[in-house]
From TrEMBL:
The gene is folD. Coiled coil: none annotated. The lineage of its organism: Bacteria, Pseudomonadati, Pseudomonadota, Gammaproteobacteria, Oceanospirillales. Belongs to the tetrahydrofolate dehydrogenase/cyclohydrolase family. Keywords: Amino-acid biosynthesis, Histidine biosynthesis, Hydrolase, Methionine biosynthesis, Multifunctional enzyme, NADP, One-carbon metabolism, Oxidoreductase, Purine biosynthesis. The keyword Transcription regulation does not apply. It catalyses: (6R)-5,10-methylene-5,6,7,8-tetrahydrofolate + NADP(+) = (6R)-5,10-methenyltetrahydrofolate + NADPH; (6R)-5,10-methenyltetrahydrofolate + H2O = (6R)-10-formyltetrahydrofolate + H(+). The keyword Oxidoreductase applies. This is Bifunctional protein FolD. Catalyzes the oxidation of 5,10-methylenetetrahydrofolate to 5,10-methenyltetrahydrofolate and then the hydrolysis of 5,10-methenyltetrahydrofolate to 10-formyltetrahydrofolate. SUPFAM superfamilies: Aminoacid dehydrogenase-like, N-terminal domain, NAD(P)-binding Rossmann-fold domains.
Amino acid sequence: MSDRYHENRIDGKAMADRLVADVAKQVATLKQTEHVIPGLAVVIVGDDPASKVYVGNKIKRAKEAGLNSIKYELPENCTQDELEQLIERLNNDADVHGILVQLPLPKPLSEARVIELISAEKDVDGFHPQNVGRLVAGQHSLVPCTPLGCLIMLREHFHGEAALSGKHAVVIGRSNIVGKPLAQLLLQANCTVSIVHSRTRDIETLCRQADILIAAVGRPQLVEKNWVKPGAVVIDVGINAIESDGARKLVGDVDFASVSQVASAITPVPGGVGPMTIACLMQNTLNAARMQIQHSDPIRT
Ligand SMILES: Nc1nc2c(c(=O)[nH]1)N[C@@H](CN(C=O)c1ccc(C(=O)N[C@@H](CCC(=O)O)C(=O)O)cc1)CN2
């Protein structure tokens, strides 16, 4: 790979390492002052290989951050009742401050019912309707990890949130996990925000107007060089497995090789947003534990 690609690359892995180290320091302080170790329960249902990797990485990072983490593995054929009983148990366990259920769930389990059942104050994924509502209302809340990771990357890149003010951010994708909450976070950072999606007409022209372009659509290498304004900052949320020369390879929603020639900064895949998603889960677990200890409203990260 040429040096040119490294010049404008935003290193998500290095940022995630710093964030986890910072969380570890705060966890150590909490342990000393409050005699509490934040506890994270990670629930996985079934055998999806990618989900297993992500859950394994979450447990590993939780150890590094000094959190108590417990993995709950349920079989592919578990019932909605069994899963809900586990969630109820974790909701009532004072040693568990954060609960997450790895998505997607196998069919026919209902993700919406499970998410609503998780106590909002332990919802470290920020998916509970109460946390979604708080985010939209501009109140502090537990915020979904991937959008939070994107915002932290942008803050670091621009040396603070103030520099985001007035910038035109275009978000490609309108998922509940990434596109919609990220648009809310960027609005609160005073960006002018556009969301584009599969039904948007002339998507390229809109994308070319972006100062900050975020691709979160799950389409391998969709965004090409001619979609990007020279000097724009590009955040690639996509993680797509493709076959290239007979080998499996991970690529984003952005064609990194061509777009990195025009973007002023760009996140790679792998090594960009993904590691920040997991680091933000550690931050959310610490925030959730603090809220539960202090009986306070959510903390602004
Ligand atoms: N309950 C949740 N489920 C899912 C979420 C989520 O935030 N909460 N997001 C995604 C999966 N995800 C986290 O769970 C996730 C995906 C990818 C990565 C990551 O670090 N990717 C690496 C590459 C990994 C590889 O080699 O396969 C990278 O980008 O460098 C972290 C987290 C859906 N489900």
